Amino acid sequence: MALHSLVTLNNRIVIQDIDSGELFAFFLVEPDRHDAKTGKISISTSLGAALIGKSTGTVVAWQAPSRIRRFEVRSVSQSS
User: Fold this and answer.
1) Residue 78 near residue 14, CB atoms below 8 Å
2) What is the pLDDT along the chain (80 residues), one digit of tens a residue?
3) Is 33 exposed, middle or buried (0-12, 13-18, 19+ CB in 10 A)?
4) CB of 48 within 8 A of CB of 40?
5) Residue 79 pLDDT
6) Interatomic CA distance for residues 80 and 69, integer angstroms
7) Model pTM?
């Protein structure tokens, strides 16, 4: 996988919760390919929209159902 610095469509994204330290990895995909069970998050979801265009190292605030969560973009990669 080639590393990139900006979050774009079809990237594999790793984010880290600022408060808990927990890591999350998923692919950012078109809405018709969304499948959270297999790690594919749509760019049209609130999290996908918050991440698109952000760069590695950026902290993003996202309104989760229960509270605002903050994530740092740890890595961005795409299949070559």
Assistant:
1) no
2) 556 689 999 999 999 999 999 999 999 999 999 998 999 999 999 999 999 999 999 999 999 889 999 999 999 998 54
3) middle
4) no
5) 54
6) 31
7) 0.88
Q: What is the pLDDT of residue 56?
A: 94
As given in the structure block, the two tokens for residue 20 are 């808990």
As given in the structure block, the two tokens for residue 59 are: 């902290």
* CA 64 from centre of chain: 14
Spatial distance between the Cα atoms of 23 and 31, rounded to a whole number of angstroms: 23
Q: What is the DSSP string of 26-42?
A: EEEE-GGG-BGGGTEEE
Of 55, 61, 59, the closest CA to residue 75 belongs to 55
Domain boundaries, the chain: 2-78
Domain 2-78 is found in CATH 3.90.420.10 = no
CA 6 to chain centre: 11
Residue whose structure tokens are 């999350």: 24
